[in-house]
Amino acid sequence: MTAVAEVPAAAAPRPAPTPRRRPVRPARVVLHVFLTVTALVWLVPLVWAVYTSLRTFADTSQHGYFSLASSLTFENYQNAWEQAGLPHYFLNSVIITVPAVLVTLLFSASVAFFVSRFNFKVNLFLLMLFTAGNLLPPQVIITPLFRMYLLIPLPDWLSGGSGLMYNSFLGVILIHVAFQSGFCTFVLSNYMKTIPHELTEAALVDGASVFRQFWQIILPLCRPAFAALATLLTIWIYNDFFWGLVLFQTGSDRPITSAIASLQGQYFSNQNLIAAGALLTAIPTLVIYLALQRQFVSGLTLGANKG
């Protein structure tokens, strides 16, 4: 008889180890509670504005704003669009915002390139000078700025017929460029410092001029930072109300934020209509943020992992 080797029985599979639950730390609970409360604080006014804009003035005047609406309608949006002339004022805001953003980014990138890529004794002073401009509130310089704008002549095609820097789109664009350049220069200079100097040194050996280094090497590498700054600048300049109010004499040339003020009368205010107009005014900035959200977030997080 031939001996038959016994085959050992297959080992039974071991049960998978159950994952251990991490203990909930009190600090994490406090953090989540804080974030939840902060989110509600930011969302409640927006939700309330939407709710108010959908109610009629007769309903709120009869039952009060803190009450349940008997009916909801989009009539306030239609009335705000027609009474405030939002398309015209939106075009004014585009004329102001687009050149101001482009000029601010180009000017700030030029100064940041000089400060970050060249070693001069005036670099720190120049950066501090541009940054210090953001410390002054606009209300401090409005009187000398107003007098200066009344003394600067402009051709009629550039001043809109006024012949002065005052009451012109150019005057508002330049003051936005002046106020926003400091912050943009500070951000771009810090980002350009993270770009290796070997890139520009190699380009210099190949015969590239300083302008070519700036235009073809540094600027393309700063696209994420430009996207983040462009988003912030567009929102800030588009939502500006102060400069558009004090530097324009005629109301038809003012930006879209001034159109909301035209919905409020001297003796009567329809808050439902104003809420609808304010929400319509905020739609372009919301669209721009959603379109550039990925670039905006990546631009803010750049440099977090760099030594």
Task: Tell me what you see in this structure.
The protein is 66% helix and 0% strand. It has helices at residues 26-53, 57-63, 75-83, 86-117, 123-132, 138-149, 156-159, 169-192, 197-205, 210-221, 223-238, 242-246, 256-261, 271-291, 293-301. Helix 5 packs across helix 8.
Quick recap:
The protein has 307 residues and is mainly α.
Structure keywords:
single chain; mainly alpha; 307 residues; flat; disordered C terminus
Please state the CA-atom Rg, rounded to the nearest Å.
29 Å
The amount of beta strand, in percent, is: under 5%
Mean pLDDT: 83
Could you give the order of the helices and strands?
Answer: HHHHHHHHHHHHHHH
Principal-axes shape call: flat
In angstroms, what separates the terminal alpha carbons? 77 Å
Instruction: Please count the beta strands (DSSP E, at least 2 residues each).
Output: 0
Which structural class matches the secondary elements? mainly alpha
Q: How would a crystallographer describe the biggest sheet?
A: none
Note the total helix count: 15
Helix content: 55-70%
Uncertain residue ranges: 303-307
Q: How is the topology of this model organized?
A:
Blueprint lengths: L25 H28 L3 H7 L11 H9 L2 H32 L5 H10 L5 H12 L6 H4 L9 H24 L4 H9 L4 H12 L1 H16 L3 H5 L9 H6 L9 H21 L1 H9 L6
Helix pairs in contact: 1-14, 3-14, 4-5, 4-8, 4-11, 5-8, 8-11, 9-10, 11-15
